[in-house]
Amino acid sequence: MILIAHRGNIHGPNPESENNPKYIDDALSQGFNVEVDVRCIEGNFYLGHDESQYSISVSWLRERKDNFWVHCKNLEAMEFFSNSLIDFNYFWHQEDDFTLTSKRYIWTYPGKPHTIKSIIVMPELIESFNYEKLKDCYGVCSDYVGKLK
Predict the structure, then answer these.
(1) Choosing a second label site near 106 at 20 to 30 A (CA), which of 2, 71, 76, 119?
(2) What span, in angstroms and rounded, lies between the C-alpha atoms of 53 and 21?
(3) How far is the C-alpha of 36 from the C-alpha of 34, rounded, in Å?
(4) Beta strands in the chain (DSSP E)
(5) Is the pTM of this model over 0.85?
(6) 3-class DSSP state for residue 127?
(7) Cα–Cα distance for residue pair 96/15, rounded to 1 Å
């Protein structure tokens, strides 16, 4: 099962560090994949959940693409990744039950049914969460992936 650190979080939410390039690199260095929030504004790229906090380069993204799950936060970012010759894994969602990523994985909202092609997102948000159920999925995106390793 693939473990995806939500915004770089491994041991719980850390709003001050989430989406910070150094924080993300730390999660990658520990062997996790990372879900990152990416915006493109007038050809410039930024990380940040609710706003454009950290300026990054396309080369920074390319160097990490094999371990990134790119959550496009605006249409310009979606357009860039859909036109890129580089094979990024990207998606857009809000509160959809299911979203298909560009690499055909099912990004599955907390508490919704899942398959072996699903990425179960934030299972810790579900009251009746049981780690045993995680074995029948492709991966998990969580703020607590350190508990699953």
Answers:
(1) 76
(2) 10
(3) 6
(4) 2-6, 33-41, 44-47, 54-56, 68-72, 90-91, 98-100, 106-108, 118-121, 139-142
(5) yes
(6) coil
(7) 23
Write down the residue that tokens 């350190």 correspond to: 146
The structure tokens listed for 8 are: 């770089």
Coil, helix or strand for 133? helix
- Ramachandran region of residue 42, left (φ > 0), alpha (ψ -120 to 50) or beta? left
3 state SS of 64: helix
- Beta carbons of 33 and 65 less than 8 angstroms apart: no
Q: Are 108 and 98 in contact (CB under 8 A)?
A: yes
| Paired strand residues for 107 | 99, 119
Q: Are 48 and 82 in contact (CB under 8 A)?
A: no
Rounded to 5 degrees, φ, ψ at 88 are -75, 155
Handedness of CA 29, 56, 49, 78 (dihedral sign): negative
